[in-house]
Amino acid sequence: MSKGEETRERILARSAQLFNRQGYFGASLADIMRETGLEKGGIYNHFSSKEQLALEAFDYAYGLV
Q1: Is the dihedral of CA 14, 18, 23, 25 positive or negative?
Q2: In this structure, what are the phi and psi dihedrals at residue 62, rounded to the nearest 5 degrees?
């Protein structure tokens, strides 16, 4: 797995946990940045929007069940 793929998976895993705890509207981009340790550009490098991230985080979490 490349470094970019590892970063993307880390964003998904931590965002999935955050959305589970706080909900979509309760989780701000600043919260996601804090959880992942990334800047805004690092997140938007992998996801075009918070909505796309949330949808993929849901799919990621669903795949763990």
Answers
A1: negative
A2: -60, -35
Residue 15, H or E segment? helix 3-22
Using DSSP, state whether 12 is helix, strand or coil.
Answer: helix
Q: What is the DSSP letter of 7?
A: H
> Residue 62 has what DSSP assignment?
H
- pLDDT of 64 over the 90 cut: no
Is pTM beyond 0.85? Reply is yes
Q: How far is CA 6 from CA 1, 10, 23, in A?
A: 6, 6, 24
**How many domains does one find in the chain?**
1
Q: Which CATH number characterizes residue 32's domain?
A: 1.10.10.60
For residue 8, the enclosing domain spans 3-64
